[in-house]
Structure formats: C-alpha cells, structure tokens
Amino acid sequence: MIFIVRFVYILGYTLLIWGVRSFPCTMAYLSRTVFHFSYMLFIVLSMPRYTFMYKILISAIYGEGSHFLAAASVGEGLARKGHDVTMLISNAFEHRTEEPMYANLSFEVFKHPIPPEEVRESLNFASTMVFRDDNIEFFSLMRNMSKRTVDDCEAVVTDTELMIRLEKNDAIIVDITWPCARYIKAVLEENMKSLRRRTMISLSATNPWSGYLMLGGSPVNYAYFPEITTGFTNQMTFRQRLLNIIQTYLISIVGEQLTPPFYRDMGKRLGLSPYIHPIFDMQHFDLHLLNINFASDFVTPLSPSVIPVGGLTVKFVEKLDQELEEFVQSSGDHGVIVFTLGTYLASITTIRPEIVTMFAEAFRRLPQKVIWQLKELPDWELPSNVKAMPWLPQNDLLGHPKTRVFMYQGGNNGFQEACYHGVPIVVIPLQGDQYDVAARIEARGLGKKIEKLELNADIIYDTLTEVINNPSYNEVADKVSAIYKDQPMSAPDRAAFWIEHVIKFGGAYMRSPANDLTFIQYHLIDVYAFLTAIVVVFLAVVYYTLKFCVSLCGRMIGRGSSRKSKTE
Prior knowledge:
This protein has helices at residues 2-22, 26-46, 65-80, 116-128, 135-157, 160-166, 180-191, 210-215, 238-258, 260-270, 322-329, 348-351, 353-364, 394-398, 412-421, 434-444, 457-469, 471-485, 491-505, 519-522, 525-567, and strands at residues 55-59, 84-90, 106-110, 171-175, 199-204, 287-290, 306-308, 336-339, 369-373, 386-389, 403-408, 425-427, 447-449. The protein is of the alpha/beta class. The strands form two sheets. Strands 3-2-1-4-5-6-7 form a seven-stranded parallel β-sheet, sandwiched between helices. The chain has a six-stranded parallel β-sheet with strand order 10-9-8-11-12-13, sandwiched between helices.
C-alpha cells in the first residue's frame, strides 16, 4: 500500500513539473491537486500505527469515588489522543453519563441485581464504620460487599447484549479493587469465542500493596517497604518491621477469604476453565499503572512493566465561579483553608453531628476563611468565616494562591493534588491506605496528622495554626511541587503513552521473570542449601581428617611409649 502511495506521489510530482511548463493554467492546477492529495495520503499512511484509534474499556468499580476519578483521568488522556474510550459503570451512578466533564468518554451501564438505591445506601453505611473500632463487624461488612461485587460481575458477564458491545475493545484497563474485567475477557474468549487479542492493563489508584508490586515482578524488601494500611514510614523500628511482615501475611490470608471463594463459584457457574484467580492472574497483564510519585512517596524498586503515574487527577487550574472567588478574596492575607472528608463523609452532618460541632468550634477561632465540603447543613448557623458546599472544585481551590492549607481524610488523589500545587496538609486518616498517606505526609514534612479518635476543637485549631504559621511546611511543599511539575508530560498523558505502547508491542518484553520462578528458586533457597551442604561436607571432612590424624598420632605416641617402657 505504501509503495502504491509513493508511486502516486512521484507521479503527481512529475505531472506538476510537466503541467507547469506545458499548461500554465488548467494542467498546473490539476497536477498540483493530485500532488497535494498524494502527499497528504503518503504522510497519513506512513505514520506509525499508534496514531490510529484504539477501542479501550476502563472498569473502575461502580462510577463513584477516588478510584473512578483516577481511572476517568486516564480515559480522558487517551481520549485526547483520539482513542475511543468506554467507561463501565453501574446504574447506581448513571448520572456520570450526563456530566459535561466526561463528554469525550463513552459509557456502558450495567444493572445491579439489587435496586440502585440499596447500593448507594450500603456504600454510605460503610463510610459510617470509620469511627467505629470493631474489626469483626468491619470484616463481616467487607465480606458482604465482596460477595456483592461478585454478584455484580456475574450480572455483567451474563448480559449478552452488553458483552457483545464490549467485544469490540482492543484493551481493557482494570482497577485492582474490582477485577471483573478479567472475567469479561475470559467470557468473551471462552464462551463467545472472540478471537480479538486484548491488552490487559491494571491500575492501582492507592498506595502500593506489596502483593501488587510482586505481581508486576518488582522486588519488595520489607525492611524499608511499609505494607499497606500499616501507617509505617520507610524508617521502621524492629517492632514495626516485625508487624510489617505479620501484616503482609494477614492481608494475604484475609484477602483469600474475602473474594476468591465467590469468584471460584462464579467461574464454575459460567463454565470457565481453568479457574481464574481474581488477584494473582494479574501477573500475566501487559502493564501495571501505579498512582504514585517518588517526589512524595517512599522509594521502592519497580520492574519495567510497573509505571508510576502519580497525579492522575491533577488538572489545569480553572477560575472559580464569581461567588466562590469573592469569598476567597475576602480572606485577605490570611487566606483560606480547604476542608473535606471525602465523597461519602460529606454527609457527616447526619452521620456524626457532634463532629460537625467540633470542627465548627475550631474554625470559629481561626482568622482564615474555611471552605468546607458539607452536603447537609446543621440546624444551627455555621461560623461567618465558613462556607459550606456540597461539592468542591478541589483541584482549582488547591491551585489558588490564597489557599494556605488542605485538611482532609488522606485519600491518595487529594494527596497528589496538594503535592502538585504545593499546599501543606493536615490529614485525619479514617481507614485503609489513608494511614499510609498520613505517614508519607509527616515523613516528608508536608504537614501534620490528627488521630480520628483524638479529635477535639483544641487539637484541630492548634494543628491548623501550626501548619499555617510554620514556614517549613510551605518550603517542603514548594520543593515537592517543583519536582512534580518538572516532568516532560502530565500523569494522564504518561499513562496514555504506555497504554498505547503495550497495545502496539505487548508487554512481554518488559515482564519480569520473577513470577515464573518458584518460591525456592526466587529466594535461591536451593542454591544456599547446596552451598551450605558443601561447606558442611568440607568442614566435616576437615574435622574427621584432623580427628583421624590426632587419633593416629596418639596411637603412635602410645606405641612409642610402650616400646620404651619394655626396653627399660
């Protein structure tokens, strides 16, 4: 094809020269048109394959929360490059399809086996657990939610019309918290006999779990790698290193009890063979995207197939609406505080009204203005320096020069955004990986942590005052921000580049051989055992040789003494 286009290009160029000389008007015009057309066709068809559009499916839980926002940012980066991106969401959050910010994305909506209202209520109820200290109840809740996600997955893969529409995709991006897309691929290939090769890509929107890194072939050293949810830094005491190892095994044990049994049953019902493990099967993926940036996260070695793309939800700062801008400007030199406890706890007024009173009392004493994400207002009047909003333009507020500090629950997206914009942080970790984010904030000197069970108005006021007035936090935040911004491309564009790359070339050449080795081979136990055996055998030979020599010398001396005594 390229040969033909080149021939037409040369022919057009020849006609152009001949036409200009022989027929200055009509022929020159026609030959020039042929030349330009063939030239443009030659340029387009000579471009590498990655300039063509790919069809990409992204599955990030249900369509709400930080995981969806991170995945949607990846989708937006791909859409800007001209790819056809489809987000798989649930009918509980179908409103996403109408939001202007996602106009460049397509949506496929699956239906829950239960009413959408019940899904939203269960997620809201789960958020109320963060202020309870009942591990048994929390584990029971997580197991029920895991069972529900498997039921949702089965609803997706048994929807024939939906699966036919999903068959078109060249690549599937899977958020690791809901691995259903792996089963979508299996059903398409095994039950629907689809021959299309699909590139599989995983996305971790949170701080890294050691198991996830090892699935990507990365080595993990627990002496300086803090396991997820421990809240440890990379400088651990003996006790912390011991607990770090124990936490790793606990996560593995608990993880095996939460979802794999349900997926195993689903696989049998669907007739999938061999059994697809919802987690460990990810070691065969082409690429792993990790939402971290080493400017603010703890350093750990990564294999080539694990790509850090920290700052996925960071966007260009847009102007605030007039009312909000006027409120921000009214703060004067004191500036503003941005405060949120996340999407689900924005309804904290009805969940824990006493906590709302606590924060309001602390804010009343501050000279700064406070912008607070709060869906329901209390039945009493908030302080005059507080503006409550059901939704915050968080990225735009963090990028505003009047913002002095960001107080929030410790989500990874907010952490990356604050780091990018150079805003000091006061973190109140509530659950899960938020403790890990808090550890990074304090270890880097980006801000301070408040324990959720120690909350009171005095601690909130003192901590905010300390972070705002101590220049060291601003200095660290400015340095981290400069490192974030000194990059050749944005995080979504970096993710899009590597996704395009593995669709074109596959990820096999970047895959570490670590996952092909057994536990004994990976840790060189057989080698060390062999070397130990050699040393033991050598020492044994030396020992018994010396023992024999000593015994022989003893006998010879004894015989000499005996002969001497007989002679005498």
